[in-house]
Write a structure and sequence with these properties.
Order of helices and strands: HHHH
Number of strands: 0
Number of domains: 2
Helix content: over 70%
Number of helices: 4
Shape: elongated
Distance between the termini: 49 Å
Strand content: under 5%
Radius of gyration: 25 Å
Length: about 140
Protein backbone atom coordinates (compact mmCIF):
# COMPACT_ATOMS: atom_id res chain seq x y z
CA UNK A 1 0.00 0.00 0.00
CA UNK A 2 2.88 2.36 0.74
CA UNK A 3 4.21 1.98 -2.81
CA UNK A 4 0.84 2.86 -4.31
CA UNK A 5 0.50 5.92 -2.09
CA UNK A 6 4.00 7.03 -3.06
CA UNK A 7 3.24 6.78 -6.76
CA UNK A 8 -0.13 8.50 -6.44
CA UNK A 9 1.42 11.36 -4.50
CA UNK A 10 4.29 11.62 -6.99
CA UNK A 11 1.92 11.54 -9.98
CA UNK A 12 -0.30 14.19 -8.40
CA UNK A 13 2.73 16.42 -7.75
CA UNK A 14 4.07 15.97 -11.31
CA UNK A 15 0.63 16.64 -12.82
CA UNK A 16 0.26 19.85 -10.84
CA UNK A 17 3.81 21.00 -11.54
CA UNK A 18 3.63 20.24 -15.25
CA UNK A 19 0.47 22.31 -15.63
CA UNK A 20 2.03 25.53 -14.33
CA UNK A 21 3.17 28.38 -16.52
CA UNK A 22 6.68 28.32 -15.05
CA UNK A 23 7.07 24.71 -16.22
CA UNK A 24 6.03 25.72 -19.73
CA UNK A 25 8.50 28.60 -19.64
CA UNK A 26 11.23 26.24 -18.47
CA UNK A 27 10.47 23.84 -21.34
CA UNK A 28 10.59 26.71 -23.80
CA UNK A 29 13.96 27.72 -22.31
CA UNK A 30 15.33 24.21 -22.82
CA UNK A 31 14.20 24.28 -26.46
CA UNK A 32 15.70 27.75 -26.95
CA UNK A 33 19.00 26.54 -25.46
CA UNK A 34 18.94 23.51 -27.74
CA UNK A 35 18.29 25.67 -30.81
CA UNK A 36 21.04 28.08 -29.76
CA UNK A 37 23.57 25.25 -29.50
CA UNK A 38 22.77 24.07 -33.04
CA UNK A 39 25.50 26.10 -34.75
CA UNK A 40 28.02 25.11 -32.07
CA UNK A 41 27.44 21.43 -32.80
CA UNK A 42 27.01 22.05 -36.56
CA UNK A 43 23.42 20.77 -36.38
CA UNK A 44 24.81 17.24 -36.12
CA UNK A 45 22.82 14.03 -35.84
CA UNK A 46 23.84 13.78 -32.18
CA UNK A 47 22.55 17.30 -31.55
CA UNK A 48 19.17 16.30 -33.02
CA UNK A 49 19.20 12.98 -31.20
CA UNK A 50 19.52 14.75 -27.84
CA UNK A 51 16.22 16.62 -28.20
CA UNK A 52 14.45 13.69 -29.83
CA UNK A 53 15.47 11.31 -27.04
CA UNK A 54 14.65 13.79 -24.28
CA UNK A 55 11.20 14.59 -25.63
CA UNK A 56 10.41 10.92 -26.22
CA UNK A 57 11.35 9.98 -22.65
CA UNK A 58 9.38 12.86 -21.14
CA UNK A 59 6.35 12.06 -23.29
CA UNK A 60 6.52 8.36 -22.42
CA UNK A 61 6.65 9.06 -18.68
CA UNK A 62 3.96 11.75 -18.82
CA UNK A 63 1.51 9.28 -20.37
CA UNK A 64 1.57 7.29 -17.12
CA UNK A 65 1.28 10.37 -14.94
CA UNK A 66 -1.64 11.71 -16.95
CA UNK A 67 -3.39 8.33 -16.96
CA UNK A 68 -2.98 8.02 -13.19
CA UNK A 69 -4.41 11.50 -12.66
CA UNK A 70 -7.26 10.85 -15.09
CA UNK A 71 -8.11 7.53 -13.41
CA UNK A 72 -8.23 9.17 -9.98
CA UNK A 73 -10.36 12.07 -11.21
CA UNK A 74 -12.77 9.75 -13.01
CA UNK A 75 -13.12 7.51 -9.99
CA UNK A 76 -13.82 10.49 -7.73
CA UNK A 77 -16.47 11.81 -10.14
CA UNK A 78 -18.11 8.38 -10.32
CA UNK A 79 -18.26 8.15 -6.54
CA UNK A 80 -19.81 11.62 -6.33
CA UNK A 81 -22.37 10.73 -8.99
CA UNK A 82 -23.17 7.49 -7.17
CA UNK A 83 -23.76 9.45 -3.97
CA UNK A 84 -26.08 11.87 -5.79
CA UNK A 85 -28.07 8.95 -7.19
CA UNK A 86 -28.15 7.20 -3.82
CA UNK A 87 -29.33 10.29 -1.97
CA UNK A 88 -31.95 11.47 -4.51
CA UNK A 89 -35.49 10.39 -3.76
CA UNK A 90 -36.96 8.49 -6.68
CA UNK A 91 -33.58 7.86 -8.31
CA UNK A 92 -32.87 4.40 -9.64
CA UNK A 93 -30.22 2.78 -7.47
CA UNK A 94 -29.59 0.30 -10.29
CA UNK A 95 -27.67 3.13 -11.96
CA UNK A 96 -25.06 3.07 -9.22
CA UNK A 97 -21.66 1.83 -10.34
CA UNK A 98 -22.62 1.57 -14.03
CA UNK A 99 -18.97 1.80 -15.08
CA UNK A 100 -18.50 -1.77 -13.85
CA UNK A 101 -21.14 -3.26 -16.15
CA UNK A 102 -20.54 -5.01 -19.44
CA UNK A 103 -21.14 -3.07 -22.65
CA UNK A 104 -24.36 -4.94 -23.46
CA UNK A 105 -25.82 -3.99 -20.08
CA UNK A 106 -24.80 -0.37 -20.57
CA UNK A 107 -26.47 -0.40 -23.99
CA UNK A 108 -29.73 -1.55 -22.39
CA UNK A 109 -29.64 1.34 -19.89
CA UNK A 110 -28.73 3.82 -22.64
CA UNK A 111 -31.65 2.62 -24.78
CA UNK A 112 -34.07 3.19 -21.87
CA UNK A 113 -32.83 6.75 -21.45
CA UNK A 114 -32.90 7.43 -25.18
CA UNK A 115 -36.59 6.47 -25.16
CA UNK A 116 -37.17 8.85 -22.23
CA UNK A 117 -35.29 11.63 -24.04
CA UNK A 118 -37.33 11.17 -27.23
CA UNK A 119 -40.52 11.30 -25.19
CA UNK A 120 -39.40 14.47 -23.41
CA UNK A 121 -38.52 16.16 -26.73
CA UNK A 122 -41.92 15.15 -28.06
CA UNK A 123 -43.57 16.77 -25.06
CA UNK A 124 -41.58 19.94 -25.63
CA UNK A 125 -42.66 20.01 -29.28
CA UNK A 126 -46.28 19.86 -28.10
CA UNK A 127 -45.65 22.76 -25.72
CA UNK A 128 -45.61 20.62 -22.60
CA UNK A 129 -43.01 20.53 -19.85
CA UNK A 130 -40.15 18.03 -19.97
CA UNK A 131 -39.46 18.07 -16.25
CA UNK A 132 -40.28 15.58 -13.58
CA UNK A 133 -39.71 11.89 -13.19
CA UNK A 134 -40.86 9.22 -15.62
CA UNK A 135 -42.67 7.22 -12.96
CA UNK A 136 -46.47 7.67 -12.76
Amino acid sequence: MRRIAWYSNFARWVARASGRSITFALAMGVIAAWITTGPIFHFSDTWQLVINTATTIVTFLMVFVIQNTQNRDTEAIQIKLDELIRSTKGAHNALLDLEELEEEQLDQFRERYEVLARGARSELDRGELDTGTPEP
